[in-house]
Specification:
By secondary structure, the protein is mainly alpha-helical. It has helices spanning 3-77, 80-90, 97-100, 114-152.
Length: 155
């Protein structure tokens, strides 16, 4: 082998090695850029998920407050029937005429005895107390539902 052939072979080998190294460098830098893009996308998704969870936690806390307020109002309403019955019996609360006579219409004035009238009056007071509690519970439930809807529509 002559000296020229050796120089040509070395030059050719260095040319091939530089071509291979350049190709590898470009492939690696492309893979690195893709990896950076993937990391940025993943970080963006993580931030979006964290934001959604934060909003969800705030909504859950608010809904918990609404539920707690509803349960407190409902527990307040449990003593309402006895309060209404006591107020009717001591005379500080009076029923309207149409409510006061709704149960006694069934009894004929001619056949009703004094005991039956007394029982009807007691029943009337108890029914009025139960009706007031049902109304108060329904009112509390409607207000809680409205609060939930308002909270949901805030966004």
């Amino acid at each position: 082998m002559t000296r020229l052939q050796i120089i040509l072979a070395v030059w050719l080998l260095s040319l091939l090695a530089s071509f291979w190294a350049g190709r590898e460098w470009r492939d690696r830098s492309c893979e690195l850029a893709e990896a950076k893009d993937h990391i940025e996308q993943s970080l963006g998704m993580v931030k979006a998920v964290e934001q959604a969870r934060s909003v969800e936690r705030q909504q859950n806390e608010r809904l918990h407050e609404i539920g707690t307020a509803y349960e407190a109002k409902r527990s307040e309403n449990e003593s309402l029937p006895s309060t209404v019955v006591g107020a009717i019996r001591d005379g500080s609360l009076q029923l309207r005429d149409d409510l006061a006579t709704c149960h006694t219409q069934l009894l004929s004035e001619a056949t009703a005895s004094a005991i039956q009238r007394n029982e009807a009056a007691q029943l009337r007071a108890e029914v009025a107390g139960a009706l007031v509690q049902v109304g108060a519970d329904a009112d509390a439930q409607v207000r809680a539902c409205q609060a939930v809807v308002i909270e949901d529509r805030k966004e």
